[in-house]
Amino acid sequence: MHKNVSILVFISAMILVFVTLDSSAYAAGTSSILGTVQASSGEVISGAKVEALGLSQAFATTSGKDGRFQFLQLNPGTYVVRTSAKNYARAESNPLALADGQTLELSVVLQPVTTTNINTLGRVVVAGHRALNTSSASSITVTNNQFLEIGALKIQNALENLPGITLERYSNGAPGAVTTFTIRGAGGFGGGGDGTSNTGYEVLVLQDGEPLRNGQFGDMDASSLTPAIYSRVEVIKGVGGTSLFGANTIGGTINLVTRDPAKTEGGEFIQAFGGYGTTDWNFSETNTFGRFGYLIDLHRFGTDGFVPFPYQASYQAFGGPFVAHPTQIMNLKSGLAKLRYDFSDSSYVVLNASLESDWRDQLGLIGDPNLNPDGSPQIDPTNGLPAFFGFPGDYVWNVQPKYSVDFHTALGGGTLIVRSYAQLLERVVDGFNEPAALCCFATRSLDRLRGDLISWTKEIGNNTVTLAAGANGDNFYFAHNPNFGHATFDMFVPSATGKQIERTYLVRDDIKASSKVDYTFAGYYSNYDTLRVKRFDPRFAVVYKPDENSVLRGSIGTGFAAPRLSDLFTAQPDLNPGDGFPGPTCGGVFVICTAAFGNPDLKSESAVGFDVGYQRLFANNGEVNVDLYRTNMSNHIFNGLFLAPPGLTFNDGTPIVYFSKPINLAHAVYQGLEVDGTLPFADHFSGHASYAIQSAYPTSVDAATQQELGNIVNNQQFLGVPLHKYGWTINYRTAARTNAFFGGDYFAKNNAYNQTPFWIYNAGANLPVGSDRIHIAWTNIFNTNGGLWSAFNHGVPILGAPGYNLGCLSSNPGIFCTTGYNSPPHNLTVTYDHRWGSLRQQ
User: What percent of the chain is predicted at pLDDT more than 70?
Assistant: First the structure.
C-alpha cells in the first residue's frame, strides 16, 4: 500500500510540474497585433484567414465584416503574419519584432488571384511606413489615385519621372504623337536617318496580362492610354518578372490592369479643365447584387494641342504659299464594362469589354519648321511667316476594342484560371481633306489579336507552384494609297501582311524556405512560328528579409525580343514616294531619298541579365531603394541607313539614295544603378529624390558597319537614352487628405528630346472639399513655351563612326546630326473629383 501511495504521489507531482510549466510557458502576454485586410482596389475583405506565426506558437483568426482582425495577449517575440482569402494571393509579412507591451497596427493588402497580375506583389504594410517590395523583381506600382494626385491625364505623364523609365516620342511631343516606353535603355530610339528609329519591342506592354503589340512597328503606342479605366499600372524592370508572356522582353514589362467590380455600390465623377482647351471627364459606377457584380466606366479626353493662338505658318512645300493655323487636336474616348457572376464560393466568371479610340489632327503634330543651316527658321518671303513642312488636312484615327472572358474555379486544391480574349488595333491615316492643289495620302494598319491562356496555382507545403500556358495570335495588315489620290481601302497596296502565333509555357515555384528567405524558380518555353523563335528561358531569384523593415533581393535570367513582323515580311523595298523620308545629305528636308526595306533574315535579340536590389524603411515614412543591374544582349536589332544601288528610283522616278534597313548588330549592353529615397524633415513635410545611371551602348560592331551606319560607335550611348537621370520633390501631407508637391526633373545629355540638358519643374495640390476633392497640377512651370515642333537634323549632334563623312554638317565631318523634339508644355490643370459609396474610401 505504501508503495502504491508513493507512486501516486510521484505521478501527481509530475503532472503538477508539467501543468505548471505549460501554464508558465503559455501565460498570457501583454503584446498585440491588430490590423485590417483589404484588396488592392481599396475595399475591405471579410472572412480572410489571418495567422500570427511565432517561433514556438501559432495563432489564427478571421477578419470581420469591416476587415478588422486582432491578436491579443501575445508574448514578446518575432512573428510572421500570413493572410489568405478566397480569390486573393496569399501574403506574408517580413518578420515582425514585437516588444513586451507593444501593439503593432497592420494594413494587409491582398492582390486578386488573376491572370491580370504580372507578378505576385502581396505585402503587409506596417502603419506609418511605405510598403516593402517583397517580390523577386525591381517593380513599381502606380495606382489610379496616384495618377489623379499628380494631375496625369495620360499614363505616360506619370511614368516618365520614374527611375529607369524614359518615353520616346516620334515626330514631337504633341498630345497625339506616337509614344513608346524605354526601360533601362531597352526600347529606345537608335537607328534611322536621324537616329530616331524605334526599338520599342524590347519592352513588353500588357493589358490585363495580355500582350499589346502593333505588327507594323512591334511596339505599343502609349499616347492614347488614359489612367481612368485602370486600377493600377504595374512596372517590372529587367528580366526578373515572371508573367506568362514575360520571356519576350529585355527591358521589362508594363501591365495595365483594368478596374474590377466592387462588392458594394459606389461611383465616381471626374471633370478636369486645363490650358490649350484641355478637358477630361470620367464617370464610373459599380455594385454587386447577389451573385452579379458590374462596373461601367466612360471617359473622354480632349485638347486643342500645345500651339498658342493665333500662331500661323506657311506650308509652302505644297504648291506655293499655304497659310494655316497649325493644330494638334486630340480627341480620346475610352470605355470599360465588366460583368461578374459568382457560381459558388470558389467559382466565378468575368466578362470584359473595353474600347480606347482617338482622333488626331496632325497639321501641327508633324509640322516641322524649315531651318537655315544656323538653326534659324526660314521665312516665306510672300507673307513673312515661318515656313513649315507638314501635311495640311492630315488626320489619324485609332480604334482599339477588346473583349475577354475569365473563368476562375478551385481545382485539385489549387486555383484554376482560364481566359480568352480578342482585340483589334486599327490605325488609319487620312489626308483627303487638303485643297486640290495640295497632295494627300493615306495608310491603314490593322492587327487582329486573339489569345487564350490557362493558369493553375497551388500551395504545397512551403511551395506555391504555378503552371501556365498561353497562345497569342496576330493577323497583321499594313497598306498604303498607291497614287496619293482618292482610293478606297480595297484599292490600297499592301506593304506588309502576315500572321503570327506565339505560344508560351511557364512553370514557376515560389518557395518559402524560412521566415526570412524566399526563392523563385521559373522556366519558359517559347515557340513563335513565323519569327522562328524556339527557346527555353530560365529565371531564378532569391529574397532575403533580415528584419521587418528591410529586404534584399537578387535575380538572374534570360529573355529575348522577337523582330517586328513588318521587318520580316517586307522583303522588297517600298518604292512608294509617300512612304519615303529624307536622308542626311539629300539636299534638304523636302527631298525624299530614302526607301524602307525589310530583312527576312533577322534573328531575335537574346539577352541574359541580373538585378540586385535593396530596400530599407525608416520611421516616419523614410525609406531608401537601391537597384544595380546589367543585361548583356546579342543580335541587337538596329535600323540604319545604307547606300542604295545606283539607278534605283521610286515609282515617280525620284532617285533612291539610301535604304532604311534593319540588321543584327553584334552585341549591346544595358547596365546601371538606380537610387531613390524619401526623407521626412519636418511635421507633414518630406523630400523625395531619385538618381539613375542607365548606360546603353553597342559593342563588337565591325568598323565597316560602323562607318556605313554613321551613328553607331562602339561603347557610345544610344540616342534617346540619357546616361544620367535625376529628380526631386518636396511633399506636404496632412491626415485630412490635403497634400501638395513641388519638384524638378533633369533631362540630361542624350535625353529623348535630343536637346541640350534642361530642367522641368512641376507642382500640384490636392484639397478636400467636403467629401469631394480638388486636384491641381502645373507642368513645366517656368517654361511658357516648351517647344512646338520637332526640328529635323537640328538636335544635339553625336560623334559619327570613325571615317564617317556623310554628316549633315559638311564643315565638320565625323559628326552625326539628330533631330530635336519639343519638351512638355507649360500647362495648368484643375480636376474636380466626386465619389460616393464604396469608391469614396479609395
Answer: 84
85: cell is 482569402
Does the residue 178 lie in any domain?
no
Asked whether the predicted pLDDT for residue 75 surpasses 60, the reply is yes
Q: Dihedral through CA 299, CA 300, CA 306, CA 308, nearest 10?
A: -140
| Element containing residue 424 per DSSP (H, E) | strand 414-430
Q: What is the CATH number of the domain that holds 664?
A: 2.40.170.20
* Tens-digit pLDDT profile for residues 674-691: 999 999 888 889 999 999
Ordered alpha helix ranges (H), 346-413: none
Strand partners, 62: 49
Query: Are 148 and 738 contacting, i.e. CB atoms less than 8 angstroms apart?
Result: no
Residue 197 lies inside a defined structural domain of this protein: no
Model pLDDT, residue 339: 96
Residue 413 lies in a domain: yes
In a domain, 244, yes or no: no
The C-alpha cell that represents 573 in the structure block: 523595298
Cβ density class 222-241: b for 16+ within 10 Å, e for less:
bbbbbbbbbbbbbbbbbbbb
Domain count along the chain: 2
Q: Which of 110, 132, 160 is the C-terminal boundary of a domain?
A: 110
SS3 of 703, please?
helix
Q: Could you report the per-residue pLDDT of 555-579, keeping only the tens digit for each?
A: 999 999 888 777 776 656 667 666 6
Distance between first and last Cα of the chain:
76
Give the pLDDT score at 176: 82
Q: Which residues lie below 8 Å from residue 586, measured CB to CB, with a gap of 6+?
A: 592, 593, 594, 657, 658
Cα distance between residue 229 and residue 144, in whole Å: 9
Q: What is the pLDDT of residue 559?
A: 92
Over residues 92-104, the mean pLDDT reads 79
Closest CA to 306 of 783, 746, 791: 783
- Cα–Cα nearest to 166, from 825, 672, 507, 811: 672
Residues 115-145 pLDDT 10s: 555 444 334 444 334 567 777 888 888 888 8
607 or 839, greater pLDDT: 607
Domain of 46, CATH number, reads: 2.60.40.10
Give the Cα separation of 696 and 669 in Å (integer): 6
- For the stretch 369-398, pLDDT in tens is 777 777 788 888 888 888 877 666 678 888
- Decide if 395 contacts 433 (C-beta within 8 A): yes
- Over residues 762-791, mean pLDDT: 86
Cβ neighbours of residue 777 under 8 Å, at least 6 residues apart?
Answer: 150, 151, 152, 762, 763, 764, 828, 829, 831
**How many other CB atoms sit within 10 Å of the CB of residue 113?**
21
Residue 833, helix vs strand vs coil: strand
H helix runs in 191-299, sequence order: none
Q: Cβ contacts of residue 312 below 8 Å, gap of 6+?
A: 323, 324, 325, 326, 385
Is residue 87 within 8 Å of residue 263, measured between CB atoms?
no
Can you tell me the distance from the alpha carbon of 127 to that of 735, in angstroms, rounded to the nearest whole number?
A: 13
Report how many helices (DSSP H) and strands (DSSP E) the chain contains, helices first: 5, 49
- Least confident window among 194-208, 254-268, 384-398, 678-692: 194-208
φ/ψ region of 720 (left if φ > 0, alpha if ψ in -120 to 50, else beta) reads left
Sign of CA dihedral 83, 678, 621, 65: negative
Give residue 600's identity as a one-letter amino acid code. P
Domain, as residue range, for 544: 278-841
Q: Model's pTM, two decimal places?
A: 0.85
**Whole-angstrom distance, CA of residue 568 vs CA of residue 549:** 50
Half-sphere exposure of 714 (CA within 13 A, CB side): 11
Assess contact for 354 and 421: CB atoms under 8 A. Answer: no
CA atoms within 13 A on the CB side of 411: 14
Q: Per 3-state DSSP, what percentage of the chain is helix, strand, and coil (rounded to 5)?
A: 10, 50, 40
